[in-house]
Amino acid sequence: MVSSIANSRLLAQVSAMRQLRERYPHAYQAGPLFHGTNLSPDQVLLEGIPANDGSNFDLADHQRQQGQTPDERSALRGSCEQAHIPAAFAGTGGYVYKFYPVGGGIHLNAALGDKQLDLVEGRLEGALMPGEHEIAFASYQPACQIEGYYQVGEFYDEHEKSRLGRFVPNPAFKPLPAWPRF
Q1: Which residues have CB under 8 Å from 128's CB, separation 6+?
Q2: What's the confidence (pLDDT) of residue 25?
Q3: Which of 12, 59, 83, 161 has its CA 20 to 30 A from that of 23?
Q4: pLDDT in the model for residue 161
Q5: Residue 101, CB half-sphere, CA atoms under 13 Å: how many?
Q6: Which of 182, 150, 177 is nearest to 31 (CA)?
Q7: Contact at 8 Å (CB) between 57 and 76?
Q8: Where does the pLDDT of residue 49 fall: very low under 50, low under 70, confident under 90, or very high at 90 and above?
């Protein structure tokens, strides 16, 4: 069950993700996604993936990881369509969660386009990490959206491949639609 505070957070996130989907329809990604973190299943399966302290839904700012204040910091988190990639972000002993994001996700490289230098602004524009598979999603995701998780084992080669443990299902998995109405 989602609390009224969480409902208002979700409503704001859904609105922001809807705007991103309208701006980048070719980059929109509907569930399931994988997110790597060191947050324990005891917390995540009870409370969900917690919101970060940002409120900025700008994809380029998210990719640059800029922002000093909550209004400037990203309200997005990273994920991808394959479980082994976010394992590197979780690290040995961390967790990779399979979930269906409320509001969906936006593939960063597809949305931002090719990297190019903006000579007027003096900075790089477009996708800064060509070939990366990151899909940005609104940071808070309720526990009911999480299908389950893998624990990350030891990394076993120079390409940082890791062993994922067995998939542990979430008994409270009852996903909301991507675009819920509260």
Answers
A1: 63, 64, 112, 115
A2: 93
A3: 83
A4: 59
A5: 30
A6: 177
A7: yes
A8: very high
**How many angstroms separate the Cα of 111 from the Cα of each of 65, 83, 135?**
17, 22, 10
Contact 33, 81 (CB under 8 A): yes
Place of tokens 């917390």: 43
Residues 6+ apart with CB under 8 A from 85: 34, 36, 133
The contacts of residue 3 (CB under 8 Å, 6+ apart) are: none
Dig out the tokens for 138 from the structure.
């609104």
Please enumerate in sequence order all residues whose Cβ is within 8 A of that of 111, keeping only pairs 6 or more positions apart, or say none: 20, 23, 24, 26, 27, 59
Q: Model's pTM, two decimal places?
A: 0.85
Using one digit for the tens of pLDDT, what is the confidence trace for 52-72? 888 899 888 888 777 677 678
> Do residues 99 and 173 touch, judged by C-beta distance below 8 A?
no
If pLDDT is split at 50, 70 and 90, which confidence band does 34 have?
Answer: very high
Measured between alpha carbons, how far is residue 140 from residues 56, 104, 144, 145, 151 in Å? 13, 12, 12, 10, 21
